Amino acid sequence: MSAEFGLCDLAVVSLGDTEKESGARGAPENNNELSTSSFSYSNGAVTTGSSADSVPAGEEKLCPVHEADLDRYCSTEGRAVCSACVTQGSCQGHTVGQLADRALVVRNQLVDTCEKMQLQALRIERFIQHTLSARERAVQVEASSARERVVAQVTAVREALEEEEQRLLEAVQREEERVEQCLLTQRAHWSKAMDTLSKARTSLVHKLTNSTDAMLVSSNQEILDRMEEAEGVGEPKDTEQLKLNRACSDSKLMLGLWASAHLLGPTAHGPAHLHFDERSISPLLSLSSDCRTLTFLPKRQRQMPSNNPERFDSWPNAVCSPSISSGTHSWVLEVGTSGAFKVGVCYASMERKGPGNGARLGYNTKSWVLSNYDGDFSFCHNGNCVTVALVKRPTKVGLLLDWTMQTLLFYDPDSMSVLHTVRQAFTEPLLPTCAVTDQSISILH
Q1: CA atoms 385, 390, 395, 396: torsion sign
Q2: What are the distances in angstroms from CA 413 to CA 235, 257, 393, 438?
Q3: Of all helices (H) and strands (E), which one includes residue 422?
Q4: DSSP string, 57-121
Q5: Do 335 and 343 touch, CB atoms closer than 8 A?
Q6: Cα 173 to chain center, whole Å?
Q7: Helix/strand/coil percent split, the chain, to 5
Q8: Tens of pLDDT along 305-362?
Q9: Is pLDDT larger for residue 138 or for residue 10?
Q10: Helix axis angle, 220-233 relative to 133-210, nearest 10°?
Q11: Nearest Cα to 420, choosing from 348, 368, 384, 347?
Q12: Using CA atoms, how far apart are residues 423 and 249, in angstroms rounded to an integer?
C-alpha cells in the first residue's frame, strides 16, 4: 500500500468521524443510536456496525450505578459516566464533557499517530532500500580499496627490502672478499718474511758455530748483510684493514624499519618500572616524589645529601634502574625546552666521584650520550663528540637499546625520525643515565 493511499484513508476516517459526531450533537434524539454505533478500521477503510456486533467483550454499555447510558466523559477521573453521575453522583463539580467529543479527540489523535507511524515506516523502508544498500555497496568498495592499498604497501616494502637485502649481502660479500684477500696477502708476506728470517738466522748460527775466530772476524760484511735482511722484515701489526668493516651492512632503510618494528610493532615494549635511582642523584639536582623527574637546582636551594658511594658528587648526573643486560628495551624522556641536558646509557661501573672525566657523561669509555647545549646536539663517547644535525629541536628523546644486536638508537618519538645510531660491543650491564643543567627532564611511560 502506498503512503499516499494510506494518508487518504486516514483522512476519510477523520472526516467521517467528524460528520457523525456533528450529526450527533445536532440531533440529541439520536444519541442512543449514535452511542450504539461504532467504527472499525481495516487498512484505512472505515466501517460501521451495531454496538452489539462491534462492542468488545467486557465493555460496559450502561452506568453500573445509575443504569443509564454512558454518554459523558469525566476528564478528572478519566472515565465514561452517565448524566446522573454528573448531576447527582461522584462526578459533581468535575470537568465533564460529551463522550462523543472526547472520542473525536482520541480518534483524531489516533489518526495523527497512524499518519506519523506510516511516514516513519516509509522513512525506514527508504533507509533500508536506499541508505543501507548504498552503504553496503560503499563498504564493499572501500574494503576492497583498503585491501588493495595494504597489499600495495606491503608489496612495495617487501620489494624494497628484498632489493636492500640483496645490496647489503653483496656489500658484505665484497667486504669479506677484501678482508680475505688482505689476509692472504699478509699471510704470504709474513710467511716469506719468516723464511727470510729463518735463512738469515740459520746462516748466522752456522757462522757462529762453525767458524774459527779468524774466519768469524773476517766475516763482518756477511754478518751485517744477514742482520740487515732480518731488520728489513719488520714487525707485524694488526690493522683495521684486516677487520670486516661493520659499516658495510649499514642501511638507513633497514635501520628505520627495524626501529619501527620494535617501537610500533605488536611486540613494542619498554622498561615498565624505569625510574631514577635516588642513591645516584647529584646534589645539583632534585628528584620528584615519583622518581621520574630531575630538576636542576640553583645554588641557594642545594643541600648536601648523605654520602653514598652510588651518588655523583660533582657532575649533575643520575642513573636509572633497573639495569639492562639482555633483550630489547625502549624508553622516552621529556626534555621540553631545556637548553642543556644529556641522555644515554653508561656502565654501572662508571665513576661517580670527583670532577674528572671518569664521572663526566660522554667523556669516558663507559658512557654513550646524546648531548644538547644551547640547541647544538651531538653524540659523545670517550671525549669524542659527533655533531647531530636536526631538522627541528625535539621536545622528547627516545632511546632504543637492542642488547643482542649491540645497537643503541636515539630517536624523536613525535616524528619517529632516527637522530643517531651507535653500534657497540657492550661488555657490562647498562644503566639509562641523564644529566641536566637547565630546567627539568622526565621519564615518560
Answers
A1: negative
A2: 51, 15, 12, 21
A3: strand 417-423
A4: TT---B-TTT--B--EEETTTTEEE-HHHHHTSTTTTS-EEEHHHHHHHHHHHHHHHHHHHHHHH
A5: yes
A6: 38
A7: 45, 25, 30
A8: 778 889 999 999 999 999 999 988 889 999 999 999 999 999 999 999 999 999 999 9
A9: 138
A10: 170
A11: 368
A12: 12
What does 153-192 look like in DSSP terms, one character per residue? HHHHHHHHHHHHHHHHHHHHHHHHHHHHHHHHHHHHHHHH
- Would you state the pLDDT for residue 60? 66
pLDDT of 233 reads: 82
Backbone angles phi, psi at 155, to 5 degrees: -65, -45
Please list, in sequence order, all residues whose beta carbon lies within 8 angstroms of the beta carbon of residue 351, skipping any fewer than 6 positions away. Answer: 358, 359, 364, 366
Mean pLDDT, residues 197-208: 86
Cβ atoms 342, 299 nearer than 8 A: no
Q: List CB contacts of 270: < 8 A, sequence separation 6 or more.
A: 329, 330, 331, 332, 445
SS3 230: helix
All residues at 6 or more sequence positions from 350 whose CB lies less than 8 Å from its CB, including other chains: 358, 359, 364, 366, 367
CB 299 within 8 A of CB 311: no
Residue 202 has pLDDT above 80, yes or no: yes
In this prediction, residue 270 carries a pLDDT of 56
Cell numbers of 319, please?
A: 642513573
The pLDDT of residue 45 is: 39
Q: Is the torsion defined by CA of 242, 244, 246, 247 positive or negative?
A: positive
pLDDT level of residue 154 (50, 70, 90 thresholds): very high
What confidence score (pLDDT) does residue 23 get?
43
pLDDT tens string 107-135 = 999 999 999 999 999 999 999 999 999 99
- By the 8 A CB rule, do 407 and 251 touch? no
- Is residue 180 within 8 A of residue 187, CB to CB? The reply is no
> What's residue 217's pLDDT?
78
Contact predicate 94/75, CB 8 Å: yes
Percentage of the chain lying above the pLDDT 90 cut: 53
Mean pLDDT within 212-233: 81
Would you give the end-to-end CA distance of the chain in angstroms?
Answer: 64
Residue 252 to residues 121, 163, 248, 258, 416: CA-CA distances in angstroms?
Answer: 61, 13, 12, 10, 13
Amino acid at 98: Q
